[in-house]
Specification:
single chain; 488 residues; 4 strands; elongated
Length: 488
């Protein structure tokens, strides 16, 4: 019996740590601090978020304070006349705050996925499991010591009793060895993952740096452009003549004998010449004097394309001005709620089906002009890698000029502000993205001959056609025409 106790180390005063190697004993000391650090930093970092955890980027954007600021700006600039410098600056600021809110929402989604969730898992699942095995290891070590001491004290007693106590010691040792192996494996795993755990905090700094850089780049570039355009502009002292601008769409079309409103058709024609790759089209403001001159030409019916087509931002500004000066939005007051209900469908197929239903309710003149405009905007977005005007960006800057509610009372003003900055994007963006599907009719874009001395390839086509024809999608704005077989 004495030999058996000697083999089991009866003469040693061991605790749980003594049964581990020196390296593992050192690693063991890091587990509890790592759990506390992960737990505390997770809680403090979660408090830094400006939006609710678990939401996607779009839902976060709507709840951010920056988005609320954008809505307030949208509500404010509607009170100014269309040529007010304050309105122009507020409109641009509104768009910028929306973009900053989207950038922040995307950052917080990424932060949650790459830092917060791993830290929470580490503190609430991975490390507690190791600490649980540590506690069990300590308990079984104590049980083994107790059984061993009891066996030692039984010397001189009956052999049968000594045999029973020996079995207890052996059983306690087996249990201890099993948990020791498991606990050691846990510690080895923790040791191998320490660098990965440390990288969570490095990734936090990287994401913060990337977010602040993107926000700063966006602000610096647009502030510079905004100042340049603002310094060139002068306040307008008199309103438009009313011959085209400010006139109801139907009365203008009947008076002119057109199907497409003069400002829409003429401005699109000029933009098609060389402006599809112009960065920030519809977003960047032009000199107010040039825009006024072009609007006067469109009102009088005497449009010299060569005079204005070289200033695409002025052309885009004149087009935006026409849309927002319509007495009723191109997408109509009556269908205001129908558009948002259709765009609220979760499934893309359901959304497109409902948008088609609403499009079918538009008066023919509104439908024809909206179709013409949206199909051009779809072409513009094809060059988003160069012009930076994705369907979303186009929707942000043009949406408030296409759809707004009747402004009667405080509630309607709030609705208008919301639509200007948030909701209307969800309507206009899918119209542009799925223009071919929603507007199956092909549109002829008449483009004049290029000016003397201009490379003809820069003007793309002199007669272009966009739309679905017999299952083929035609892309007209290329130096050589091509088609993609099959519907998209």
């Amino acid at each position: 019996m004495l030999n058996f106790l000697k083999v089991l180390g009866v003469g040693k005063n061991q605790d749980a740590t003594d049964l581990l190697t020196e390296d593992l004993a050192l690693v063991e000391q890091r587990v509890e601090p790592a759990k506390k650090a992960a737990q505390v930093i997770y809680k403090k970092l979660a408090c830094c978020l400006q939006s609710q955890q678990g939401l996607d980027a779009d839902k976060r954007t709507k709840k951010l304070p920056l988005m609320m600021l954008s809505v307030s700006m949208a509500e404010s600039f509607k009170d100014f006349d269309v040529d007010s410098p304050i309105r122009r600056v507020l409109e641009m600021c509104c768009c910028m705050e929306t973009l900053l809110a989207k950038t922040l929402a995307e950052f917080e989604v990424q932060l949650e996925k790459e830092v917060l969730e791993p830290l929470n898992k580490l503190s609430e699942e991975d490390l507690p499991e190791i600490l649980k095995n540590k506690k069990l290891f300590a308990k079984l070590t104590t049980d083994w010591h107790a059984a061993r001491n009891k066996a030692q004290a039984s010397t001189g007693q009956a052999q049968t009793k000594q045999d029973g106590l020996r079995e207890e010691v052996e059983e306690a040792w087996r249990k201890l060895e099993n948990i020791k192996d498991q606990y050691s494996a846990d510690l080895y795993h923790f040791s191998s993952k320490e660098d990965s755990y440390a990288n969570y905090f490095i990734r936090l700094l990287e994401l913060q740096a990337e977010y602040h850089k993107n926000s700063l780049d966006c602000l610096e570039k647009n502030i510079t452009e905004l100042k340049e355009n603002h310094n060139q502009s002068a306040p307008r002292l008199s309103g438009p003549s009313g011959k085209v601008y400010g006139a109801p769409l139907l009365s203008h079309l009947q008076h002119s004998g057109r199907q497409i409103a003069t400002p829409i058709q003429e401005c699109v024609t000029m933009l098609l010449q060389r402006s599809l790759k112009e960065e920030g089209l519809f977003r960047l403001a032009a000199a107010a004097s040039v825009v006024r001159s072009l609007k006067g030409s469109l009102d009088s019916g005497n449009i010299d394309h060569s005079e204005f087509s070289s200033d695409p931002h002025a052309v885009a500004g004149a087009l935006k001005s026409y849309l927002r000066e319509l007495p009723e939005p191109l997408m109509t007051f009556e269908l205001y709620n129908d558009w948002f209900k259709a765009a609220g469908e979760k499934e893309v197929s359901d959304k497109l089906e409902q948008l088609k239903v609403v499009l079918g309710k538009l008066p023919p003149e509104n439908y024809n002009n909206l179709r013409y405009l949206v199909q051009f905007l779809s072409c513009l977005s094809e060059h988003q890698d160069v012009n930076r005007m994705s369907p979303s960006n186009i929707a942000i800057v043009l949406g408030p000029n296409l759809l707004w509610p009747r402004t009667e009372g405080v509630d309607s003003l709030l609705d208008m502000a919301s639509a200007s900055s948030v909701q209307v994007v969800s309507v206009i963006e899918p119209l542009i993205q799925h223009a071919n599907s929603l507007f199956p009719e092909a549109v002829d874009f008449e483009i004049p001959e290029p000016p003397a001395g201009v490379d003809p390839t820069e003007t793309k086509f002199h007669r272009c056609r966009i739309g679905n024809q017999g299952g083929r999608t035609i892309f007209p704005f290329c130096t050589q025409p091509f088609v993609i077989e099959g519907k998209i």
